Amino acid sequence: EIVLTQSPGTLSLSPGERATLSCRASQTVRGGFLAWYQQKPGQAPRLLIYAASRRATGIPDRFSGSGSGTDFTLTISRLEPEDFAVYFCQQYDSSLSLTFGGGTKVEIK
Amino acid sequence: QVQLQESGPGLVKPSETVSLTCAVSGFSVSTGFYWGWIRQPPGKGLEWIGYISHSGSDVYNPSLKSRVTISIDTSKNQFSLRLDSVTAADTAVYYCARREQWQAFFDSWGRGTLVTVSS
Question: Within its chain, how far is the Cα of B110 from the centroid?
Fold first, then answer.
């Protein structure tokens, strides 16, 4: 099973700042099957990025994903007030299993 | 636009079985996607439970495999989760979601339903 480790656990930033979130896999994520989700309190997760770098429908271009192999990054170029939330990464591997990372909380400084 | 809605008992006793259903509207479950369940204990992260194809092929999280069954009913356009021998550790919000066929991301989610395991 591929384990995903997200860092930092919490990111304290101000609106307008840049956020950089990391997701590190214990093994190579083949095919770049890596997605990012945003979750706000009391809501279901929302898909932001799939295939490591492709924005989902309706996602603003301030959100971008990058990386390959075992290291992936979600970047929010300029934080808007609605971006303060928890972010999860998720991978899919050749054994047909899925795993989620533990999450990074982006909070207002 | 696809919509998913979970339903089931909010409270279950330890050692019992919990059954949840996900009703899908705006999209046919018979059309080439996978249908999955994910759970989230209060204040914690997401855990994938399993998924099923429109044709009934299923895959489960190895840590839950011995207690989980996912089924699909194309005539009712819904799919279901059965979790046996529950304990307090199974207390969580349970989400159903649509899983994209090739890239395996979840692009549509239900609002979730809280299942509490308590005597």
Answer: 10
State how beta strands A10-13 and A104-108 pair.
parallel
Q: Given A44, A46, A100, which is nearest B45 (Cβ)?
A: A100
Across the interface, whether the CB atoms of A102 and B45 are under 8 A apart is answered yes
Provide the 10 A C-beta neighbour count for residue B108: 20
Residue of B5, B48, B103 to mutate when probing chain A, most A C-beta within 10 A: B103
Interatomic CA distance for residues A75 and A61, integer angstroms: 10
Q: Choose, out of A3, A36, A98, A100, the residue to mutate when testing the contact with B (most B CBs < 10 Å).
A: A98
Q: Note down pLDDT in tens along chain A; length 109 residues.
A: 899 999 999 999 999 999 999 999 999 998 889 999 999 999 999 999 999 999 999 999 999 999 999 999 999 999 999 999 999 999 998 788 899 999 999 999 9
Please give the residue of chain B at the shortest CA–CA distance from A44. B111
